[in-house]
Input
Amino acid sequence: MLLLIAGLVVLLGVHSLQIAGLKEPLLARLGKAGYRAVHSLVSLAGLALIVIGYGQARAMGVTQLYDSPLWLRHVTILFMMVAMVLLVAAYVPCRIKAAVKHPMLVAIKIWAFGHLLSNGDLASVVLFGSFLAWAVVDRIWLKRQPVDVIALEKAKAAPGANDLIVVVIGATAFVVFAFWLHPALIGVPVM
Output
């Protein structure tokens, strides 16, 4: 469990540099390319620790905090479809992005909350609860920042076809992940 917690601190910590007011000084010191390189390497290290730590915690049979009813797994599947669409919307100018404003954070919140509904073991609560808490704090921080009017207007002016493309790609990614990647990478069948 210690590796899982360390990974969460590293990954979520490096993604909280802007909230802590440390991004700009690091950008000035390292330059844009240097900052991106260090940010990427630290993020990958944090992700690796999370994956290893979560796997170890599950293998050790961590404490079950609550048992979810079976029907909540169906709710989680629905949530994951929405999260995948929002994840794609974060990278494509579309009206979905304009309406949601921060689709990546909303996708993370939906992903984390959905998994908390279905997984009541301590490792899962720590993992998904940490991501949910981080995404909520990050969204609150972003609400207090100036709006990127240019990006928002670009998203609002995007053709309606972009929304359809986002939904199709998100739904396809969901199907691929649910049927093949989740069992292969996570070791837990979804369907």
